[in-house]
Amino acid sequence: MDLMDHSARDLAALIRTRQASPVEAVRAALARIEARRELNAFITVTGEQALADARRAEAAVVAGEALGPLHGVPYSVKDLTLTSGVRTTMGSAIYQDFVPKEDAVAVARAKAAGAILIGKTTTPEFGHKQVPTAPLFGRTLNPIDARYTPGASSSGAAVAVAAGLGSLALGTDGGGSIRIPASCCGIVGLKATLGVVPNLQAPDLYSANSFTGPMARDVADTQLLFDTIKGFDARDPYGQVASLPQRALPPSLPTSLRGLRVAWLPTAGNPVDPEVEAVTTAAVRAMEREGAVVETVLLNFVALERHFLVVLQSMLAARVGANLERFGDRLDATLVDAVHKGRRHSAVDLHEATFAKTRCFAELQALFERFDVLVSPTVSAPPLPIDMDVSGEIEIGGKPAGTIRGAWYPYTYPMNLTGHPALSMPCGKSTAGLPIGLQLAGRWYDDDCLLAIAALVEQALG
């Protein structure tokens, strides 16, 4: 069995017991990356540095030193996330040669746990769109079927995990960018509660919508990486979890789905592909057979699309706008268009979006007084054709359905606006063999509870 086919937890155990070495593991990952170059999952491969880190990790094993939970395990980091000494391009010519001096918090914590960085994965420029392309690196392909999108913007991260180019990845999620590619590639991805994984890169920490989070092939590996990167950081205004009273934390983790109160949201005001409806409904029925109490709920998340776009486009205008004159012809046309739209939004527009976020937060808080978990499709159709026009209307079930955010993933971006934790997990496939994802969302700080529920659902689905 190839080392890259093991789970991260099994690989870590093999390394601790000297049945495998970090050098062997890194070489296996690099060989897989080279063998699957057509997928275009990596912008930068850190082969020499990874092997040097692996040799040091191997020496620590031989010397009998204390080992971290991810000691010697190869992993990748999305190229929006800072990595000390390794270039971080943001998928853009603007940062093509940028080499950070410090690691992002999640990267530093993964490194401290012994994980070995093997490379930086592809992303659209600044994660601005749901198409896995950028002028800097080209197009990333879905390893299951190259005719369909792997999702974005954590495109390369999801592809790397799904194709066995390392069992763990760090992605980022600004509107579904971990969960959507997780769904499209048939893996698990978590966007945690705001601040639980500190993200100091956000230029506005008080209105942050972007999250760093774990991606893996199953729930247990996702939990393993999450446990490594979560926790208190005084520099993040929302990262103050350690100072919360204990009553804010879940008293115990569920060990059974029996009695679990499930809010089932098949549609958020959008059309749903019949296959997605059938597969996700079957997953909810499986939860019911295990004793969950399910009630269908109605939420109109599609109405939030225009407010989400105001937030996103205004941020891009502020962050990228000053570079248009110098780099304009080297930037993605859709990014340039988003910047121009962002410049046209007013302060009133931005405040109205903030008010809409507040209303959505209140609506979800009221929902979670009655239910333990909100379950929905992750996206409303199986992976879309890879050559889709991200600026135009998409089709769902063969019919025009509207713009991509409101029609395909209205389930995901509300959780970015409100800060609630949410994950995507595979729950079945379409008749064409394409993955279909199930989203689970929960109360603030119920991240571990959400993962425990996901593990039980994973078991119920076989």
How big a fraction of the residues is strand?
A: 15-25%
Envelope shape: globular
What is the H/E order?
HHEHEHEEEHEHEEHEHEHHHHEEEHHEEH
Structure summary, number of beta strands: 15
CATH class of the largest domain: Alpha Beta
Helix content: 25-40%
**Tally of discrete structural domains:** 2
The low-pLDDT segments are none
Radius of gyration from the alpha-carbon trace, in angstroms:
21 Å
CATH H level, superfamily name of the largest domain = Amidase signature (AS) domain
Structural class: alpha/beta
Number of helices: 15
N-to-C span: 22 Å
CATH fold name of the largest domain, please? Amidase signature (AS) enzymes
Average pLDDT number: 96
Commentary on this structure:
The chain is of the alpha/beta class and 462 residues long. It folds into two domains: 8-241, Amidase signature (AS) domain (Amidase signature (AS) enzymes); 259-306 and 345-457, Amidase signature (AS) domain (Amidase signature (AS) enzymes), CATH 3.90.1300. It has 15 helices and 15 strands. The protein has helices at 8-16, 22-35, 47-62, 105-112, 155-162, 179-185, 219-229, 274-289, 305-320, 324-327, 333-344, 347-370, 404-408, 413-418, 447-461, and strands at 42-45, 74-78, 116-121, 133-134, 138-139, 168-173, 188-191, 211-216, 261-264, 293-296, 373-377, 393-396, 399-403, 422-429, 435-441. The strands form three sheets. The chain has an eleven-stranded mixed β-sheet, sandwiched between helices. Strands 4-5 form a two-stranded antiparallel sheet. Helix 4 (105-112) links the parallel strand 2 and strand 3 (116-121). Helix 2 runs antiparallel to helix 3 (47-62), helix 9 (305-320) packs across helix 11 and helix 9 packs across helix 12. It is globular and about 60 Å long. The chain starts with 7 loop residues before the first helix and ends with a helix.
